Structure formats: C-alpha cells, structure tokens
Amino acid sequence: MSETALPIVAEGLQRYFGSGDNIVKAVDGVDLQIQPGEIFGFLGPNGAGKSTTVRMLTTLLRPTGGKGRVAGFDIVSEADSVRRNIGVALQDAAIDPLMTGTELLRLQAVLYGLPKAQHHQRAGELLERVGLTAAGGRRVGTYSGGMRRRLDLALSLIHEPSVLFLDEPTTGLDPMSRISLWEEIRRLNNDGTTVLLTTQYLEEADQLAERIAIIDHGVIVRKGRPTELKAEVGSPTLFVTVDESTHQIATGLLAKFGELRPSPEGSLGVGLHEGPSAVSNVVRELDDAGITVRNLELREPSLDDVFAEATGYRLEGAES
Hints:
alpha/beta, 6-stranded mixed β-sheet, 4-stranded antiparallel β-sheet, 11 helices, 34% helix
C-alpha cells in the first residue's frame, strides 16, 4: 500500500522548542506508518514526546522538520483537509461546563457543517453510543471525570471521521470507567475507524493495540506487535525484595542467574535464563548467604519489561 493511502504517516517528524543553546528536542525524528482500521498504541512517560507528536499530526502544532500525512493529506500544506477528516480527543480538552451534553454535540455539528436536520438525531445517537443519554440534558459541570471523557469522545465522532486520535483518554479514570472506554474504542475500531492511542498505561496498550511504538526523550526506541516485543525480551523477570543492607551482596548473587533488569524501587530484578525452574535455586543461594527474602515475585515478559529493556527504567504507573 502506498504511503498516500495510509491513514497516518510520519517521516522524520521533529519539533524543537527554544533556540541557540536552549533548544529542547521534544520530538526528534519520529517515523510512523499506521494501517487502515488499526488501533496503534503510542507509549511513553510524561514529557517523552507523545502529545507533541499528536499535536503535529492533528495540525495543532507546526513541525520543525520532517513530513506527515493524515487521512491522505499533508499536515502542513493541507491542514484544513486533515481537520475535516479526523476526530481528536485531547487530554486537556476544554468543555464548557455551563452547556449540556446535547447542546455541545449540536454546536459541534454546526461547526462541522452538518445539515441542520441531522443535528438532533446525531447528538442522540452519540449520547446513546457513549452511555450518556440520561445525562444529555444536564450541564457538563455536573459530570464526573469518566462522563466528561465519554462526552469528549462523542464530540470527536460527530462528523464520522475515518481517523481518530485519542491522547491519554483514560488518565485519571477509575477502573470501571477505563474498561467502559476501552469497550467503546473497540466498537469504533470494529466499525472501521483507525485509532492512534497515546497512553501511559501498558495494560491499556496490551489490551487494545495491534501494534505499538515506545517513545523516550523524543525518539522511538521500540516498535512492533506487543506479542513479538514481549517474546524478544525472552526470559521471565524475578523481583526480589531484601533488606537494604544486603542489596549489594544479593545483587552479586542474582547476577549468576541472568542479566539484572530495572526494577521497582526497593526491589532487585533479574531475568532468569533457565526460566521458573531457577527460582528455587535463587532462594537457596540467598538463604545460604544469610539473606532474608522479604518478597518474591516472578513475572512473565510484559510490555513493562520491553520498556525497561529499551530505556533502562520502568514506566511510572506500569502496574496500574
């Protein structure tokens, strides 16, 4: 498939801030090719360049360098056409708290030039789709965080876009609201919508995305299918918690069983070359050295391990 037919393409995309010796390279040469009808996960910690990349692809921020095409249009020279063909739900979207959900959807329909006869019907359809029919007549200021996120999603769908950008859509939501939003994203994708999803939650990407890219300090450090990336990590990771006074000795002993890996604060991590069968030998070795094990946990390779291997540290919130 030619690049012009792909829903989202980025080639060497860059965005720098500042000048002279104070230049900050927020995005430094990002390459992406996202297939039609795909949910693509874009992972990274706060400040890694996720949102900046999305803002360039959605024409809200002009690139410093590189090229991008969305829905078949150039993000700089054909910005208006890009906007008409995409839906965007940003993390910091401003929603008027004094308007009702129905009023906001009707206003969005006006802004996108939908025929007046469709405004009421389209607003009702979308409120039902995101589970807000009963709240449509209430002011948005009375909505919970999860309800606001679902309304923001409905607003981004008013013109039936073929490409949808979701920038950390579930940040700050409770587990039930997060799962509800996941289900809606799946339904949209099943209807043929291409989705670029930025998130800090590894579980979210694992659940939803067919492929992912991990960005760190403005550079993509891993890209591929979650199953393939996890397989590349190979061995499971054993996390051991011991008294701080014995950390140095324990680290030396653990290194006999595999490569040391980044671990949550207060614990030590090692990739076991011999797999789960080596756990008993690790415990025996530590016990023989007089080291008391406070906690022991064996985890199969996860996206957290992929991120740790690529960046040298673990993504905050990975276990959420």
